[in-house]
Specification:
alpha+beta, 5-stranded mixed β-sheet, 4 helices, 5 strands, elongated
Length: 149
């Protein structure tokens, strides 16, 4: 049975060190990654990647330290390992997590904005900052000597 040595990382953080996994049949690299994460392949491995994460980038090489080649995620894993190498460095995306956090942040900002508007606090805050800016500018201009005179 063919095999691949897999490493999974996000940025500089390694989530799953080099480990040899079997390739039971031909599939795309993307499908192979899903099967690894869902423990259909190598169920004994505790891979610290959630099933909501998708494979964003993969690089193959002959050895773990040789120059790697970035490949399409839709390529056949059997062909890739036969022609390029059995060492596959997978990099899942975390964009979905960032999008979820961003959505919560926007909701919190909107709720805060609604409370400020309801209290009329925003109008008072804007009028204070505007009058403060005008006073500061006038003082700055009036205290400034004209070098031509």
């Amino acid at each position: 049975m063919p095999f691949a040595s897999i490493r999974i990382s996000k940025g500089s953080r390694t989530l799953h060190g080099w480990y040899i996994h079997p390739i039971p049949y031909d599939m795309t690299l993307k499908d192979f990654f899903v099967k690894l994460v869902t423990k259909e392949l190598s169920p004994e491995c505790d891979i610290a990647v959630t099933t909501s994460e998708i494979l964003e980038r993969a690089e193959l090489s002959e050895t773990p330290v040789s120059v790697a080649t970035q490949v399409s995620l839709n390529c056949s894993i059997m062909e890739l390992t036969a022609t390029i190498g059995v060492n596959i460095h997978c990099q899942p995306s975390h964009n979905q997590e960032i999008q979820i956090v961003s959505k919560y942040y926007v909701v919190i900002l909107l709720i805060g904005f609604v409370f400020i508007m309801e209290d009329g606090l925003l109008n008072r805050l804007l009028s204070f900052s505007t009058s403060f800016s005008i006073v500061q500018i006038q003082n700055h201009i009036s205290n400034h000597e004209d070098p031509l005179m």
